[in-house]
């Protein structure tokens, strides 16, 4: 069941989203060669708690980190640890914050120092695919119009869209209905309505679309070992279109 949020609930989620955006902004100061993913996790958790929120991911289904830190061929759910960032890496950081009982959720992929032209293109295309999808987020439109716009844009640039992981609704629960694939035909699925709050999060591989999970049962990597990227915003459907909640 898709839960439409009241204006008051969206107001709370707007603050949750702002805290997530501020945390991304804070972490960017520290993303450089030599820092560990565990250090980034500590910075994020401290920052979120200082803003009267709690990390959404901490303890979620047993996850040990406060954020997900996925480097290079790691797509999602990377567990913070002793890995040291190196010049030329890319790192996807997924952040969730729960404020007054409601979640905000956003992921972004960042360069570490100077990165390759291929990596730059991957980041640009994945980010732009998110906004191409958001252009289709409007009341009355079918959900998979978002999905189709993302896939079309990504594949036009010779990258591939991951199928196994999808976007989702969000609210008092971190993951709510509906599930939102980032591929598929248009004009399918439920019609979008004002009050729906959704996480749109294209996950894009430089090589084939196939992924696998490592032995830690969390970290998802590309099967071919090539780079991947992940960009995500939490949005609310409005009377006229959409509003990004995970922004400053």
TrEMBL record:
Q: Where does a divalent metal cation 2 bind?
A: 105, 168, 201, 232
Q: Which UniProt keywords apply?
A: Aminopeptidase, Hydrolase, Metal-binding, Protease
Q: What is the main EC category here?
A: hydrolase
Q: How is the cofactor bound?
A: Binds 2 divalent metal cations per subunit. Has a high-affinity and a low affinity metal-binding site. The true nature of the physiological cofactor is under debate. The enzyme is active with cobalt, zinc, manganese or divalent iron ions. Most likely, methionine aminopeptidases function as mononuclear Fe(2+)-metalloproteases under physiological conditions, and the catalytically relevant metal-binding site has been assigned to the histidine-containing high-affinity site.
Q: Can you give the residue ranges of the Peptidase M24 domain?
A: 11-239
Catalytic activity as recorded in UniProt: Release of N-terminal amino acids, preferentially methionine, from peptides and arylamides
A Pfam family reported for this protein in Swiss-Prot or TrEMBL = Peptidase_M24
Q: Which domain of life is it from?
A: Bacteria
Biological-process GO terms, alphabetical = proteolysis
* Residues noted as binding a divalent metal cation 1 in the record, renumbered to the chain: 94, 105, 232
Instruction: Note the PROSITE patterns from the entry.
Output: MAP_1
InterPro entries documented for this protein: Creatinase/aminopeptidase-like, Pept_M24, Pept_M24_MAP, Pept_M24A_MAP1
What is a single cellular component term in the Gene Ontology annotation?
Answer: cytosol
* Chain sites annotated for binding substrate: 77, 175
Q: Name one GO molecular function term.
A: metal ion binding
SUPFAM superfamilies assigned: Creatinase/aminopeptidase (SSF55920)
User: Oligomeric state and partners?
Assistant: Monomer.
**Family assignment?**
Belongs to the peptidase M24A family. Methionine aminopeptidase type 1 subfamily.
What does this gene product do?
A: Removes the N-terminal methionine from nascent proteins. The N-terminal methionine is often cleaved when the second residue in the primary sequence is small and uncharged (Met-Ala-, Cys, Gly, Pro, Ser, Thr, or Val). Requires deformylation of the N(alpha)-formylated initiator methionine before it can be hydrolyzed.
Q: Supply the name of the protein.
A: Methionine aminopeptidase
- The record lists the organism as Anoxybacillus tengchongensis
